[in-house]
Amino acid sequence: MLFLKYLLLAGAIALFAVAIGLIVSIFYSQLQNRRRPEAEREEISSERNKHTFFRAARIGLAGFLCVVLAQSIVVIPSGMAGGRVSQISGTLPGTVYPGTHFVVPLVQYVETYDVREKLFSTTPSIDKSTPAKTLTVISREGLNIGMAISVRYRVDASRLDYIHNNVPQPIDEEVVRPLITAVFRDVAPNYTVKEVFASKRDELRRLAEQRITQKLTKDGIVVKEVMLRDIQLPAEYAKGLEGMLLKEQENETLTYETEIKEKQVKIAELEAEAVKGQQIKQAEGQARVRVLQAKGEADAMQYMLPLKEKQIQQSRLEAEARKEATIKNAEASAQAKVIDSKAELERRNLMADAEANRIRVVAAADSERLRTEAIALKQNPLLINKIIAERLSDKIQIMMVPADGHFFFGNDVMRGFMHPQAEQPSEAADDPPIVSQETERK
Questions:
Q1: Is there a smaller number of Cβ atoms within 10 Å at the N or the C end of the chain?
Q2: Residues 6+ apart with CB under 8 A from 193
Q3: DSSP letter (8 states) at residue 189
Q4: Is residue 2's pLDDT more than 70?
């Protein structure tokens, strides 16, 4: 439809150009007919001018119709909306949304508005020499505070007829900006600088958002969001406020820590009370158990006392029996010891006699043996060497040599034993040394 509108406009321009060309040709023909005779000039000019004029009129009318048709076509682009305005009855109700629409040409037209979301922003500078987009408010103490805010809004497309009739244009500069700045400057004096900067910052933003939304909604403007981005305080006050806020934060931290300690103390007290109650209950339970045990023992003693008495009597009788048995055992033991001592005495006497007899026999046997050995050694002197060799054979090895060679110490021993009176010290000194050869045990 937009192409058709532009096509009609182009055709109208072409038709108007043709009509103007025909009218120009009429004036040109009149200038040429002035040189001709008057009779011919009047007849020819009147007929030709009349025909050309009607032709130009028809062409101009066709061009006008094209313009009228083009004006009846209205194309609303995306993101825009419009309202019909009549030259006779004023603004018509309803909204014209994006697309192609038809209006009464030369009587109605469409006033378009941007219905997309817009953003109004300010800077937080408190310097008076800054541009107009700064926002400065006054606190309860009378100090200037710079605010950086952002407001998202859009025109309500369903109320364009009201906006066109009642709201000043342009809306951004005539309505939105003055109203937003006025609301913040009206709300801020209710708070101190400290509250605006820290504790009640969000409360101030919500209150301003409510008022801005209410007032702009009356004018057909929908508010999406109000954001308080930044706050700029006077330099000296900002330093003092930061220090105060740090101290308050430390105070709050200490308060929280104190509360935590108190809660820990309460928890410890509750735990101690719980342990105490538990111990009391345990003690009561143990006392009850002991009472029950005592009652049980008392009840049992009623049945146990006769048994104990019988046991005592039985123990007494047993003790008396053991006493009598012990006396009898002692008497029997004494008699047995007397008998044992007499038997032991007789046994010792017999053993002494036997030992004396044995000693006499052994002495006689030893005497006989020594006498026999003396006779044997006298008859065979080398027998002692054999005996010594047999006794020493398990420790050493001995090589025996003849006695007449004077090489074995047994010769001198035997000679001294057999002839003790005949030997002289000088002869013993003149004997040659004893020669023996010992070897290691294999």
A1: C
A2: 139, 140, 141, 143, 145, 233, 237, 241
A3: G
A4: no
